[in-house]
Amino acid sequence: MEQDLQVSILKELMRQWDEGKNIDAGVQYRMPTSAYVCPDIAAKEWDIMFQNHPQLIGLSGDLPGPGTFITLDDFGTPVLATRDRDGQFHAFLNACRHRGVRVSQEERGRKNVFTCPFHAWSYSNAGDLVAIPDEDHFGAIDKSCNGLIELPAVERDGLLWMHPQPDGELNVDELLGPLAEELASFGLGDLVHAGAKTITMNLNWKLANDTFGETYHFGKLHRNTLGKIYPGNNLHLKEFGRNHRFVTASPAIEKFKELPEEQWDIKVGAAFILYYLFPNITLIVGNGSCTLVKMFPEEGNPGRSTSQIFAYYSQEVIDQAEAAKADGSLGEISKDSVYQEGGRGIKTLEATMEVFSSTIEQEDYLMGELQQKSAGNGLLTHVIFGRNEPPLHHFHKTFREVLGLSPLEEIKQ
After folding, report:
1. I need a labelling partner for 120 at 20 to 30 A (CA). Which of 128, 167, 305, 411 fits?
2. What average pLDDT does the chain have?
3. pLDDT tens, 392-404?
4. CATH, domain range 3-52+178-410
């Protein structure tokens, strides 16, 4: 991120911090709770936003070298993503061309050949059909046109993109616009996959996304967890088409008042730099770290969703954490240690997952389950998005526009 942009964002956060006033979008909106419970809306989302829209499936660190692979089945298409012998990224339908059985059942690993467990048809990590047992019994097969079905796939600036449909359009420049250059500046391609966590709960996937849409609740809901180190009630928002950047301040921002602007560092002065990438991605970048959150609906059930959290770190950060563990200076990772020590352990996998467990799962998503019940009852017909919640305005305006739904209703004062 360019220095002038970092300074501009930090100055706005300083102003809010000093004045004790949050961002003001100047407008409130009312939204129908049907967005969280309607089966027809859920079906349209599944078709338009998941089955027929490009998906960010991970970072380059998920495929750390030739022969590595990952599998996923999050949006109705079983995917096998590989890096072939030359290091090229591919995405395939994870289905044997013989009878459709998945050729890989493992979540991730390293293989040059994938063998179907049913009849042992084998495929290279470039998707080629390389062997058919007892082919003289089975009959002749043209191997050149019966490889794994390839899906559009692009690796760009450390991000792995694919489209669930073989004939789908995948244009990263169009998806990200001017945000592409900014994301490239973080060096995400150098980060190492460290671990993951899955949370499945009874809330609509958009309620899960709403968790990452405002800081109004930090000092209330998170007063004993995240609120101990990040006070909230401040944020900077920039929209990039269907995507946005959301930054909130860390107490360390106070130190910048005594430093020349060329020394200001947003990765220090911000509690987090969060990117929402349409339709369902939260990407949180830090100093030598990145957390990727993917939120998916359960097909056919608007009231249930799964969030997958993936943690990535630079090798330097990993080495520092391992050294601290070895000499005992890291200490025990617990909710109290993470928050009371101001996030000292936040650059370890254990600490990152503790935050997502104690703060997101046990606080935010618990609230989401209660919201889901209220919406499902039918008596609460609308919810309100405040002037201090513009990331929510942007997200819900966007998804409603994409689905052809009526726009959010502005509340007249």
Report:
1. 167
2. 92
3. 999 999 999 999 9
4. 3.90.380.10
pLDDT surpasses 50 at 339: no
How far apart CA 399 and CA 396 sit, in angstroms, is 5
Contact of 13 with 234, CB cutoff 8 Å:
yes
For domain 58-169, give the CATH superfamily: Rieske [2Fe-2S] iron-sulphur domain (2.102.10.10)
Distance CA 63, CA 73 (A): 17
pLDDT at 343: 46
Question: Which segments of the chain belong to CATH 2.102.10.10?
Answer: 58-169
Q: Note if the bond before 231 is cis, omega within 30 degrees.
A: no
- 347 pLDDT band, cuts 50/70/90, is low
- Cα dist. 369→32, 235, 312 in Å? 17, 25, 28
| Angstrom distance (rounded) from CA 324 to CA 318 | 10
In whole angstroms, give the CA distance from residue 154 to residue 233.
Answer: 38
Both structure tokens of 44: 């349209």
Instruction: Give per-residue pLDDT as tens, 195-237.
Output: 999 999 999 999 999 999 999 988 888 888 877 788 889 999 9
- Side by side, the strands of the sheet bearing 68-72 are 108-110, 68-72, 79-83, 89-93, 150-151
Residues 296/305, Cβ–Cβ less than 8 Å: yes
The 10s digit of each residue's pLDDT in 257-278 is: 899 999 999 988 998 899 999 9
Residues of the chain with CATH 3.90.380.10: 3-52+178-410
Cα–Cα nearest to 69, from 95, 96, 90: 90
What's the pLDDT tens digit per position in 359-368?
899 999 999 9
Look at the block and give the residue holding tokens 């994938």.
Answer: 114
Query: Rounded to whole angstroms, what are the CA distances from 364 to 54, 203, 206, 211, 213?
Result: 28, 11, 13, 6, 11
